[in-house]
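Q: Could you write out the predicted structure for this multi-component system? I'm mainly interested in how the pieces pack against one another.
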Amino acid sequence: MDIKISQMNLSDLNNIKDILTTEFDDFWSKNILNDELLNTHSKYIVAKLENEIVGFAGLKIIFDEADIMNIVVKKSYRKNGIGSLLLENLINIANNLNLNTLTLEVNEKNLNAIHLYECFDFEKIGTRKNYYKNNIAIIMQKQLKQ
Ligand SMILES: CC(C)(COP(=O)(O)OP(=O)(O)OC[C@H]1O[C@@H](n2cnc3c(N)ncnc32)[C@H](O)[C@@H]1OP(=O)(O)O)[C@@H](O)C(=O)NCCC(=O)NCCS
């Protein structure tokens, strides 16, 4: 698959706004993403197969660290390496910005995502009770500059 990664912009969001909850994930609404794209501390990328957006991901920078805010692949394109490609690009962005750590929260039941993060040397550093639907979130972190 010839997937190209580029910076995500508002027109990309407009392109996927109607299928966000059905074909990507049920959590990231258009309004939240719109705010994220306008936030100067956030960096978002999209994965495109020709002109079709097949995934996106973003991080938010807090001083010399960043939180991965989301990484989502279009349902029909999962298990093709696109999630890995997006994560690899976020790690490169963080490294280029000379950040120290990358941190994220993931639902303890989301084994696909946990496995993906472990493949990129993220380690579990704690848990947090998520108020949404009483879920437990696992906090994972990757040390950069190694
Ligand atoms: C988590 C998520 C981003 C992973 O995306 P993905 O594109 O499926 O990830 P990848 O394809 O890179 O890797 C996932 C699996 O596919 C396998 N894979 C990668 N390339 C492959 C290929 N060419 N053929 C077959 N399998 C392949 C990987 O080995 C991995 O399998 P494993 O977990 O059994 O080892 C995706 O499942 C998703 O969007 N989930 C919903 C949103 C979400 O939960 N995001 C995380 C929030 S914290």
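A: Regarding packing and overall arrangement: The CA atoms of residues 54 and 74 lie 5 Å apart.
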